[in-house]
Write a structure and sequence with these properties.
The chain is an alpha+beta fold. A hairpin with a 4-residue loop joins strand 9 (about 280-290) and strand 10 (about 295-305). It is built from 13 helices and 11 strands. The strands form 3 sheets. Strands 1, 2, 5, 8, 9, 10 and 11 form a 7-stranded antiparallel sheet that branches. Strands 3-4 form a two-stranded antiparallel sheet. Helices cover about 45% and strands about 10% of the residues. The two termini are about 75 Å apart. Among the domains are: about 95-325, no CATH class; about 340-375. GO terms for molecular function: calcium channel activity.
């Protein structure tokens, strides 16, 4: 009762007299007269009603306003949905990721020392020194500070905290030798790397023909001079600072003990595995820290440009799969509708899998048809509403600028609005011509019918 809105409408009372009304013969007025006096009488006030054109203009403005608020509500819904996605995405983070990446940077890059500093590598010799003395020694676990042998740490790197998943791989990408264009002192040129001038032939140790291989080499050394495609390696294209590199290449796998790694890397150094045709060296490995249940993808990239110089880059990407395990399991069950194929096979070894396969095909077909229909319908609506959307967007922009005070309605714009209202009062005579013809025919028919009636 305290929040009840008053029945008095001041704006309406300026034009209407509540005491001046007409009743039908079967109606009675049940309320008392307000401000009733014998010496006063209701003064009739003339109401300035809108004409038909002004009503039409006001209706269009109101429809635009309704559509504007509808778009604002829809935009607000999308904005809330986007905020929820960002909250879920950024909230699903591992608090130990920064500490893990910081530890691996200090562990592998060796930035404290002047020698074998990875970010300072600029020559091929410095590259080999870091690979042989720093990377290889840190990728194999070694005795403790008191010379005790680590127990139950097989497969761990030398920090005793991270375990290697699989093994580390060093992949090289090379370019072909081409004849230099024009008259030059040097006849053979090696250009920058591209997918078109990549070397994909297999060689023997020392980059000689396979048929002229001499001496005895291990399988790791022989495999480092043979080309492997991206399909064989199950690898992907990698983008560096100075180029994009294919997933194939010449691969050396870090297998065996620390002494085997040191011997093989020294042999590759002697055979000139990295030379003037080398354009990229990719060292990739995956680590797992069981203490924080965190995976880390480690990638070192050494880019060799034709203009000389080595440009090292690195990436440490922490990944947490365990938080997504329950979600992935739930999505898999939803996709498969939690069918037990074992019971179907036990029921009938042929009809069970056949019925399940047909059901899945029909489900996918229905879903695809539904999605395509929705997309086509949305494109059709967007094409039809393109002009209306442009008009409503200009209307919204004008309202927003006026509401914020950034733009005031000028005299020209006000006159343009009055002109648009005035244009509604006029019409093209050609458009009204069919109506005039219809009226003329109606008059002729009436006159003819009257003459026939008198006759």
């Amino acid at each position: 009762w305290f929040c009840r809105k008053s029945d008095d409408d001041r704006e309406a009372s300026e034009y209407l007299d509540v005491n001046n009304f007409e009743l039908e013969y079967d109606e009675d007025y049940l309320h008392s007269f307000t401000d009733y006096s014998l010496f006063t009488s209701g003064s009739s006030k003339q109401v300035n009603r809108l004409n038909e054109n002004e009503v039409h203009y006001a209706r269009e403005e109101r429809l635009k306003e309704i559509q504007m608020w509808s778009i604002i509500r829809e935009f607000g819904t999308y904005l809330v949905f986007l905020i929820l996605i960002f909250l879920i995405s950024f909230a699903n983070r591992e608090q130990n990721s920064f500490l893990q990446v910081n530890h691996l940077r200090n562990y592998f890059l060796n930035t404290i020392q002047l020698d074998n500093n990875y970010p300072k590598i600029s020559t091929i010799d410095q590259c080999w020194e870091w690979i042989e003395n720093i990377f290889a020694s840190k990728m194999r676990i070694q005795p403790w500070y008191n010379s005790d042998v680590p127990q139950n740490l097989t497969g761990y790197i030398n920090d005793k905290s991270n375990r290697i998943i699989g093994w580390s791989v060093m992949r090289q990408l090379r370019v072909k030798s081409t004849k230099c264009s024009g008259e030059r002192v040097i006849s053979i040129c090696e250009d920058d790397y591209s997918f078109f001038n990549e070397e994909k032939r297999s060689f023997g140790p020392g980059w000689i023909n396979e048929t002229s291989v001499g001496g005895t080499y291990s399988s790791s050394i022989l495999g480092a001079f043979k080309y492997n495609s991206s399909d064989e390696l199950d690898s992907y294209v990698y983008r560096g600072e100075h180029g994009t590199y294919d997933g194939g290449g010449y691969v050396y796998e870090f297998l065996g003990s620390l002494s085997d790694l040191t011997s093989n890397l020294s042999k590759l150094h002697q055979l000139g595995w990295i030379d003037e045709k080398t354009r990229a060296i990719l060292i990739q490995s995956t680590l797992y820290n069981p203490n924080v249940q965190l995976f880390t993808s480690v990638t070192f990239l050494l880019e060799f440009l034709s203009s000389s110089g080595v440009y090292p880059t690195y990436r440490f990407e922490p990944i947490n799969f365990f938080d997504l395990l329950s979600t992935a399991q739930m999505l898999s069950e939803m996709t498969l509708m939690k069918f037990d194929t074992g019971e179907l096979i036990e029921a009938n070894a042929f009809l069970g899998p056949l019925a399940f396969t047909l059901f899945m095909f029909l489900t996918v077909f229905v879903c695809m048809s539904m999605f395509i229909s929705i997309i086509n319908d949305n494109f059709r609506r967007a094409q039809q509403d393109r002009i209306d959307n442009e008009e409503i967007f200009s209307f919204m922009l004008r309202r927003f600028l006026c509401w914020t005070g950034l733009k005031k309605v000028s005299e020209l714009e006000r006159q343009a609005q009055l002109d648009s209202r005035m244009h509604l009062q006029y019409f093209d005579p050609i458009e009204n011509f069919p109506n005039r013809i219809a009226q003329l025919l109606e008059v002729i028919n009436r006159v003819c019918f009257k003459n026939i009636f008198h006759l």
